[in-house]
Amino acid sequence: MKSILKEILSTSVYLLVVLLITYFIVNFVGQRTQVVGSSMESTLSNGDNLIVDKITYRFQDPERYDIIVFPYQYEKNTYYIKRIIGMPGERVRIDGEGIIYINGKELNEYYGKEIIVDPGIASQEIVLGMDEYFVMGDNRNNSTDSRDSMVGNIHKKDILGRAWLRIWPLYKFELLEHQ
Question: What is the pTM of this model?
Fold first, then answer.
């Protein structure tokens, strides 16, 4: 009888430790999220499962072209996955030809392959605050992003983390490239 109680107590303590470690990892280190929609095609696809790195931005600032995850402010438990285009303190504008300008200079990037049809609010120059980021989906003409006033500029405090690892589907398992 004594050995059974000892075994139950030992198992309970083991399970408690596992639950505490899991809680710590999910809340402070990493979190699984699923891509819904095609706004990040061809980098990420609908149904891809990712691990979000929640710890890196505690020690360093996000960088241009990082793929970040942040909550959509108008719908609970909805997260957006977008790429950082504009950095704090910069001026962002998209002209009528679909060219992105940062501080008056054309942005030389290859993530958005098509010509931007709708520059949205970025048709007028946007000046980012010292803690704000301008984000866009890679599928530029099928993305609700900072060009839409419902998303707007993203504050650093609102960034959940950066997309780090694609875990599903298995044949696409890989560390995500940001730069």
Answer: 0.84
The total of structural domains in the chain comes to 1
Which residue carries 């970040």 as its tokens?
68
Cα distance between residue 97 and residue 52, in whole Å: 34
Domain CATH code at residue 61: 2.10.109.10
Instruction: Assign 134 to helix, strand or coil.
Output: strand
Question: What's the 3-state SS for 13-25?
Answer: HHHHHHHHHHHHH
Report, as residue numbers or ranges, the catalytic residues: 39, 82
Q: Is 111 among the domain residues?
A: yes
Q: pLDDT digits over 123-143, tens only?
A: 999 999 999 999 999 999 999
d(CA 118, CA 33): 28
